[in-house]
Backbone:
């Protein structure tokens, strides 16, 4: 096959935060890059919208943070643990960091990365383009087959990066082995307007032995994250809605009016089936996977977004060493990326499991 519609050194599939950052960094360094996104817009949902100090440091390093701040973000001032409508414990930020997390709306972050990238000579963005196959030449993959606006196209590249999330098409097509990690809970999400004078905090409560969390969002909103036993939502939906929502109001009395006005049925919640995962290898025949495609995280600790940004930075640093000769970048070199990142990622996944198992201890009487 040699009738290609597009050619580039690197083809990145998935314009989430990690893929978009990697594309920007590569194209800024003169490495021709094609970024492929199956959606026709950037306002797709991804749940992880909190930067920690690692994500902030990466964006500052590449002169992106100040522009992002101008678009709008919100620093969390503290974490509070609530019991029976009262604060029982407060965690303040490290003075050198100055926050316990930063909420960044996904369209602000993705919008900034795409705006910075579009003027670059070595950057091509293909929206509404769904990858449906990989091209094989000799003993390696050499490109992707995709459908763009219903038309089949072919993209040739020396390196294919799967940054396409927890249900990664690239991972499936290249047959990367994956193992799932069950956490024993699913998550109900809802977003409501914040009450007047609501402060930028993360608030936690324990309701029927399940975690209930509130995350203040830029723009005057509160995101509710309510853990429920894994697989229990069909049964919960059959029950009366009122007692369930009354428990939310009892845990956080300030929310009574906005909850009553904005959460009126089960349909006002979104179910997230919580699973993390890991792949035995992230590199195969000039294909590399990163972010959620390689190591899906649970929501606990807000590691996912920051881990994906760190993947992008490390992979960029390895690829740029081969600027001008990407065709010589093989599995041995790419495995450096996996070796650098795998240990840290697995530590974060283990930390999530420990935090989830010990959450109730935060409410033990001292």
Residues:
């Amino acid at each position: 096959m040699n009738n290609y519609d597009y050619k580039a050194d690197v083809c990145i599939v998935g314009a989430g935060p990690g893929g978009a950052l990697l594309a920007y960094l590569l194209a800024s360094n003169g490495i021709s890059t094609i970024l492929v996104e199956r959606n026709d817009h950037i306002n797709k949902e991804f749940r992880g919208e909190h930067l920690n100090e690692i994500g902030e440091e990466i964006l500052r390093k590449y002169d992106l943070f100040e522009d992002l701040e101008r678009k709008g973000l919100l620093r969390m001032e503290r974490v509070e643990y609530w019991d029976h409508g009262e604060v029982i414990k407060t965690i303040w930020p490290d003075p050198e960091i100055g926050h316990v997390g930063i909420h960044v709306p996904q369209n602000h972050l993705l919008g900034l990365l795409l705006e910075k990238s579009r003027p670059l000579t070595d950057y091509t963005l293909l929206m509404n383009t769904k990858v449906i196959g990989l091209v094989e030449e000799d003993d390696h993959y050499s490109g992707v087959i995709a459908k763009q606006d219903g038309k089949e196209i072919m993209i040739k590249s020396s390196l294919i990066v799967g940054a396409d999330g927890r249900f990664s098409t690239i991972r499936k097509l290249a047959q990367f082995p994956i193992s799932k990690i069950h956490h024993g809970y699913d998550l109900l999400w809802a977003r409501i307007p914040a009450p007047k004078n609501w402060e930028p905090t993360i608030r936690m409560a324990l309701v029927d032995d399940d975690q209930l969390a509130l995350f203040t969002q830029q723009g005057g909103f509160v995101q509710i994250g309510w853990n429920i036993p894994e697989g229990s939502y069909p049964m919960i939906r059959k029950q009366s809605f009122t007692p369930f929502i009354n428990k939310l109001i009892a845990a956080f009395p300030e929310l009574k009016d906005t909850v009553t006005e904005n959460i009126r049925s089960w349909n006002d919640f979104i179910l997230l089936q919580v699973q993390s995962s890991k792949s035995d290898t992230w590199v195969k025949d000039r294909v590399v996977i990163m972010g959620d495609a390689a190591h899906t995280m649970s929501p606990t600790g807000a590691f996912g977004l920051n881990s994906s940004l760190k993947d992008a930075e490390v992979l960029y640093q390895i690829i740029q060493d081969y600027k001008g000769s990407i065709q010589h970048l093989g599995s041995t070199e790419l495995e450096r990326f996996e070796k650098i990142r795998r240990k840290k990622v697995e530590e974060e996944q283990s930390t999530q499991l420990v935090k989830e198992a010990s959450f109730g201890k935060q409410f033990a009487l001292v």
